[in-house]
Amino acid sequence: MIGLADRLAERTLELVNIPSESRQEGEIREHVLGLVPPGLSAEYAHDDAFLFLPERRPDTPLVVLAGHYDTVPAQGNLPGRIADGAVHGLGASDMKGGVAVAVELVRDLAVERPGPYDVALLLFGREELPPEHNPLPALFAGSSAIQEAALAILLEPTDRKVHAGCLGHISARLVFRGVSGHSARPWQADNAIERAIAGLAPVLEHEPRDAVVGGLTFKEVCSVTRFEAGIADNVIPDLAVATVSFRYAPDRTPTSARSYLGELVGDRAEIEITGDSPPGEVVANPLVEALIGAGALGIEPKQAWTNVADFTARGVDAINFGPGHTERAHRRDELVEIAALVHAYETLWRFLTGQMGEDGA
């Protein structure tokens, strides 16, 4: 019988080697759906979100294992490989390793099905795109079972720890306007780049703010991520546009976060909000404590946005816990350690069943 470590590594590599950049997920979607065991049935299957349930037992809490199967664009890191105790390649950490663990767990649970919980599997795509492409709001509108979950566990990269809550994320374009003119006579123009340099100073000088929520310290940050300006080498530009990423803490509402960003920028630029994903709540749930007791390496705040926010905004408790490495996500040299895959599987197995059998299954 193949050992757990080899099985998880091979499943992860199998998923890595199926290209699945967001919007091009057809092949990976059909592949992972084909891995769902017969003991689970599709309660919701629409718009790149698929929720599979076991036959429900009376008075048994429902735990949902969730993972997205899409990735960011490749960076010369396909195909993947297994080497030096890790699976290397696009999406290995974020989050095909997590999907591999979730799939292997539900396949094993379909055989034994012990334990105090009914375990569902949620697979979805388009996670690496802006919020308007998110398929989970439609899931919540169309599924009754998802609302019954006692806890959802998203297997995002967490370095083997529980990551609670998550930051909100506003994306905004700051538009600076001037008057174009000949670069030989700049006094006859109004340089939009100069306006932008001055106007962006408060954003560039913004100090991270520590926000303690639920006993966890989130860092609120604001960054300039893009800058566009210029018409020609001999033209003073009349337009400069900067893109700002504001990651705001769970102690702010989306309204207060927008107000703060407006105060930071002032009247130096026009603000166009291009995306706003609210933060996730830090939940107080005894199942989270049980997961930590089963082997998760402590609890930290999620210093990013994840789909945990989709759940907590609708009254469903959710956390992140997965085998991936946060520092490796989206990198050219992305990888997930095989030991981390095994740790995540065994921790979730102990949590979901209260037992450990041969090869961790």
Report on this model:
The protein has 361 residues and is of the alpha+beta class. It has two domains: 4-166 and 280-360, Aminopeptidase; 168-277, Alpha-Beta Plaits (2-Layer Sandwich). Helices cover 29% and strands 28% of the residues. The protein has ten helices and 18 strands. The protein has helices at residues 4-16, 26-35, 92-112, 136-142, 192-199, 201-204, 254-265, 286-293, 308-312, 338-353, and strands at residues 41-46, 49-53, 62-68, 81-83, 86-88, 118-124, 149-154, 162-164, 168-177, 181-182, 209-213, 216-229, 235-236, 239-248, 270-277, 299-301, 318-320, 335-337. It has a six-stranded mixed beta sheet with strand order 1-2-6-3-7-17, with helices on both faces. A hairpin with a 2-residue loop joins β4 and β5 (86-88). It starts with a helix and ends in an 8-residue tail after the last helix. The relative contact order is 0.19. The model is unreliable at 356-361 (pLDDT under 50).
List the helices and strands and how they pair.
Layout: H1 4-16, H2 26-35, E1 41-46, E2 49-53, E3 62-68, E4 81-83, E5 86-88, H3 92-112, E6 118-124, H4 136-142, E7 149-154, E8 162-164, E9 168-177, E10 181-182, H5 192-199, H6 201-204, E11 209-213, E12 216-229, E13 235-236, E14 239-248, H7 254-265, E15 270-277, H8 286-293, E16 299-301, H9 308-312, E17 318-320, E18 335-337, H10 338-353
Parallel strand pairs: 3-6, 3-7, 7-17, 8-16
Antiparallel strand pairs: 1-2, 2-6, 4-5, 5-18, 9-14, 9-15, 10-13, 11-12, 12-14
Helix pairs in contact: 1-3, 1-10, 3-10, 8-10
